[in-house]
Amino acid sequence: MTKFTVISGSSSEDLAKKVAKKLRANLIKSQLKIFPDGESKITLNEKPQKNKIIVIQSTYPPVDEKLIQTLAIISKAKEYGTEVIVVIPYMGYARQDREFLPGEVITMKVIANLFKSVGTSKIIVVDIHSLLGLKYFKIKTKNVSAIPDLAKYISKLKLKNPLVVSPDKGGKDRAKEFAKILNVEYIFLDKERNRKTGKVKIKSTNFDQIAGRDLILVDDMISTGGSIIKATEFLKKQKCNRVFVACTHALLRNDAENKIKKAGVTKIISTNTIPGNTSLVDISGMIVKAII
Ligand code: R5P
Hints:
Rib-P_diPkinase_arc, Rossmann fold, binds ribose-5-phosphate, Ribose-phosphate pyrophosphokinase, 15 strands, EC 2.7.6.1
């Protein structure tokens, strides 16, 4: 009997396959049917063995649908498993981790309680927006960093005098870690987001280090692309060479990929927490390390 059984939700089939292969675990897929009224119906293809079960499902858009599907799979897995470890490669709602404006619901807290109530023993996430989000889970948690894998990919590109840039102060430590692996310098910009409209602007003044260099803009996620576009426009004005974007989660909503390319970005590199055109970096190895 293998030690683990992996159950994949429909949003992370490829990643689940890679994780199961590395763990030499049995892989069970789930069938998803959406009823005309929008309800999700999930059926596991096989009955899991009574051992440690790993559920893998990313909650990228449609986020609410994916979340309810994930909770449903976990509750079924709990009927069989002695322990249910849940891997959420992209955790939706992680940006709603505090009350920014009076009256706002901290939805991350609500979601955390739901994961516990359906029987999650431990939750593993990848580069969650902020570690505060994990504090709401009253179970074991682990945040996996995709930075080493992203940096390894970038290190193979032939970049000209590279400089790592974070589009905001909140990403400073991420940029620092990335730059350390590449053994290059880093800077961070001063970004301001209007909490009501969501619009961003860069408030930084010019930097001496930018002109003529290839830049790597590092972020945890791209949603609408607003942050990356504003940062790229700011950096291009200062006569940088090429701009590469390395991020863990590429949601790329509202035609963001085209808009980012139009702003002058040479290439977007993201991970397979969200499968798509830009997901060039596989993080299954890091997930396996967090499981065993
Ligand atoms: C913000 O603090 C995050 O790290 C990302 O920079 C942000 O969520 C990306 O969103 P968008 O692409 O819509 O600017």
